[in-house]
Design goal:
Rossmann fold; 10 strands; alpha/beta; 40% helix
């Protein structure tokens, strides 16, 4: 199987659709400023959140900046968004390699693609957005020191979604002791990344946001729950599950606490469970909507 990261991002659309916390979304809808609005999304991947906001009728007129450090993701976004827009009866105009206009009689969105590390992008001091989106990315950063920098990208709202919070469950059990050991070691890899990260980022965001001076308007669970229905996984979720196991393989390869053959057998059995439509995967995560402090000098 070819493990394409853009394909993984596409495959988890339906998983994220179910997971995103509806109370937080309702709070976002009620607090969005009048259009047109400026949106910055960091770790934007291939643009699935942009598409979701249009599908859910949450955008009409906006400037939308998609920021991602992976060139492969930005290239995929430039190709995938026009395809999706066409399939959704939206018109598309290109104005240069990194700009698109997606529109119809009601909606008009100007899109700009930025291939950049988030902190390098912050150093450029872009015009702050009305809404910052950070989707499934904050648990990769060193905290709490990164939070004020990230929040500097917005002058109003921050929608911070799918923040992992310390629980991974794969059912049915293969070997209880081994299952628990692999889960523990997998979470430890998140906590020991040289670039930062936190396997309990979700719960810790309450204090990180408060320390950064932000007001939490809404918060709630956004758990991934993936299971087969009548033996089949919906949409592209079979690939999604295989990619999750690929994360386990890559993260725990060569771990001195794991027997190589035992771990390989465990992975093989989990993949067989996917093929038989038996694997159930649950990951606990948290969503937040926060209002950020006004930039210095504003509101006086």
């Amino acid at each position: 199987m070819e493990y394409s990261f853009p394909h993984y991002l596409l495959s988890k659309q339906s998983v994220d659709d179910r997971a995103l916390n509806r109370n937080v979304i309702d709070s976002l809808k009620s607090n969005l400023p009048e259009t047109p609005i400026r949106i910055i999304e960091v770790g934007a991947g291939i643009g699935t959140m942009f598409a979701r906001l249009l599908r859910w009728d949450m955008l009409t007129k906006a400037e939308y900046i998609l920021v991602d450090e992976m060139a492969e993701n930005i290239e995929s976004a430039r190709e995938w968004i026009p395809i999706w827009a066409g399939q959704s009866n939206l018109s598309v105009e290109r104005s240069g390699e990194n700009q698109l206009r997606v529109f119809d009689s009601i909606r008009d969105i100007q899109i700009k693609f930025e291939c950049a590390d988030i902190f390098e992008f912050i150093q450029k001091k872009p015009q702050p957005a009305d809404l910052l989106i950070a989707h499934a990315v904050l648990d990769l950063f060193p905290m709490p020191e990164s939070m004020p920098k990230i929040l500097s990208l917005t002058k109003n709202l921050a929608w911070l979604t799918i923040n992992f919070d310390g629980v991974t469950s794969l059912e049915p059990t293969i070997d209880l002791a081994l299952d628990e050991k692999i889960e523990r070691l997998y979470h430890t890899t998140m906590d020991t990344r040289p670039t930062g990260g936190d396997s309990r980022a979700g719960r810790h965001l309450f204090s990180h946001l408060k320390t950064a001076g932000a007001e939490i308007l809404a918060a709630g669970a956004s758990d991934w729950v993936v299971h087969a229905v009548n033996g089949n996984y919906i949409a592209h979720e079979k690939f999604f599950l295989h990619f999750i196991l690929h994360f386990f393989e890559e993260s725990l390869k060569g771990n001195i606490e794991l027997n190589v053959d035992e771990f390989s057998t465990w992975i093989t059995k989990r993949r067989e469970q996917i093929e038989r439509g038996k694997l159930v995967y649950i990951a606990h995560q948290m969503d937040f909507l926060a209002r950020t402090p006004l930039p210095e000098g504003e509101g006086i």
